[in-house]
């Protein structure tokens, strides 16, 4: 067990088999509302995201009951409890424990999603304190961990797996399949930064020769939003949304989330970079 303090609230974290689980019960205390976890869990988008996560990491996931839950969700009166979710789907991403440190815990990927739903500012604080905890741990273990790499990879696997499962099967041309992954990645680049990877390289040849890309030079806010967009795009892929419609939805989400983070009174310490680059949209 470890503890961090976020916005005056003490949050418990436990690690099992190299996976970190964060107390949603503790996080919910910041909202002074007992049923906030149930509200979040009952949302259709939350259920779809959890389904993607479980499909990725849980070989015993009950897809049949998951499908029933997903199809039922969405109504104003729909309510899904943590106990019901775990019992019906055999989920492992969220856990309910009893005893001294009892409560509802979620894998860090899921906990960060919950934090973003509560408040972009709270999620940013949570990531910052989680980073600090990991830095202290790595100093003791003499290993390497940094939050920028963590944010860049947080939902990457969920994103690529959704492409493999929901986009690739629709394509019959073998040559086209080869560039689908890069096209999906560029969809996120355009939504967040306003340009593709190739356009960035063309505008920044010196940095490109150093094997750098726009994501390497993104700030903490941008990487946080990028991670969230990967999770959102995984859901859109599952729903079969066309690329031009996905871009509109992703752009809107990126704009809203960045604005919320930029307006926050709290920011991660600015990372000093040897590069001075002006990020601008390219036509």
UniProtKB/TrEMBL annotation:
It comes from the Bacteria. Coiled coil: none annotated. Residues 1-133 form the KilA-N domain. PROSITE patterns: KILA_N. InterPro entries: KilA/APSES_HTH, KilA_N. This is KilA-N domain-containing protein. It comes from Mucilaginibacter phyllosphaerae.
């Amino acid at each position: 067990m470890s503890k961090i303090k976020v916005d005056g609230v003490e949050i418990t974290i436990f690690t099992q088999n190299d996976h970190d689980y964060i107390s949603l019960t503790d996080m919910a205390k910041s909202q002074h509302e007992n049923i906030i976890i149930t509200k979040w869990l009952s949302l259709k988008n939350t259920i779809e995201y959890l389904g993607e996560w479980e499909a990725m990491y849980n070989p015993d996931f009950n897809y049949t009951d998951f499908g029933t839950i997903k199809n039922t969700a969405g109504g104003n009166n729909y309510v899904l409890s943590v106990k019901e979710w775990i019992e019906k789907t055999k989920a492992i991403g969220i856990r309910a424990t009893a005893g001294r440190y009892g409560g509802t815990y979620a894998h860090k990927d899921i906990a960060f999603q919950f934090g973003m739903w509560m408040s972009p500012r709270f999620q940013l604080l949570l990531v910052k304190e989680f980073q600090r905890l990991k830095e202290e741990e790595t100093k003791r273990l003499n290993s390497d961990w940094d939050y920028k790499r963590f944010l860049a990879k947080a939902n990457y696997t969920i994103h690529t797996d959704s492409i493999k499962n929901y986009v690739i099967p629709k394509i019959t041309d073998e040559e086209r399949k080869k560039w689908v992954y890069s096209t999906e990645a560029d969809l996120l680049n355009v939504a967040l930064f306003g340009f593709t990877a190739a356009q960035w390289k063309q505008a920044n040849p010196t940095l490109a020769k150093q094997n750098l890309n726009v994501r390497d030079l993104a700030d903490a806010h941008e990487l946080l939003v990028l991670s969230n967009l990967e999770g959102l795009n995984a859901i859109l892929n599952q729903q079969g949304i066309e690329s031009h419609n996905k871009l509109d939805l992703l752009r809107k989400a990126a704009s809203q989330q960045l604005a919320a983070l930029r307006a926050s009174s709290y920011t991660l310490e600015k990372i000093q970079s040897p590069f001075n680059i002006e990020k601008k949209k390219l036509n």
